[in-house]
Amino acid sequence: MVRLQLAKTDDAPRGAAAEHIKKVALRLFAERGVDGVTVREIAAAAGQKNHGAVGYHFGSKEALVRAIVMDGAMALDRDRNAALDRLESEGGPRSIREVVDALIEPVLALSDEHYVPFIVIFAMTHRDMMLDALDPAANSAYGRGLDHLRRLMPDLTPALQNQRFVFMGAYISAVLSARQRALTDHSREHPMWGSEASVEHFLQTLVALLEAPVDLPPSLLKGIGKRGELVPQVSGPVG
């Protein structure tokens, strides 16, 4: 298995050919994982006669992966920040549900249906590389959302809040990745995943996860936050 080492680059490839290569590569990475796709396969699937097209436009496969990670991250961060800006301008957010909507609706509105499955797989198989590719400045809105959630969850200690946020991130990634994988499978219908009712039910269960009362004996409560649990892991672009 080839192990990627992401190269730092500030280059920003432009042009229709580069954008098409990114779109095709994103689909292939979502389907097979980053290690399961070669640059020759990407070029061929993109209709490029020159097998060196990825290198020509991006410099390397690693730089292409970095560009794809950042494209989705910046789109999510922009739309999440805009939603939080609107809520704050109105004196909010006033409820956990408002914060949840601000974090989740931009994911559902992403223009490319393959980004969520791609980034979830990439985070699981190459977590350090995903975080290396992700500019923290392009993931600021998620932290803003967590700050609002802390304020809206005063009955939980900071350690319990952070544990809930770890659960929340895993839940968001797992459910939305499963949803997108189903919706990109055009071989059959997926009535549950395509239903607005299912999306609303997911949002309600996410709120319930955050709002649920704690019912742990004191002996267990004492252990929370004492073994590296005080700070949640850095989030990926989705959750």
UniProtKB/TrEMBL annotation:
InterPro entries: Homeodomain-like_sf, HTH-type_TetR-like_transc_reg, HTH_TetR, PsrA_TetR_C
Keywords for the protein's UniProt record, in alphabetical order: DNA-binding, Transcription, Transcription regulation
Keyword Transcription: yes
UniProt-listed SUPFAM superfamilies: Homeodomain-like (SSF46689)
Domain PsrA tetracyclin repressor-like C-terminal: 101-207
HTH tetR-type domain location: 23-68
Superkingdom of origin: Bacteria
Coiled coil: none
Matches recorded under Pfam families: TetR_C_30 (PF17939), TetR_N (PF00440)
GO MF term (any one): transcription cis-regulatory region binding
Protein name (record): Regulatory protein TetR
Organism the protein comes from: Sphingobium cloacae
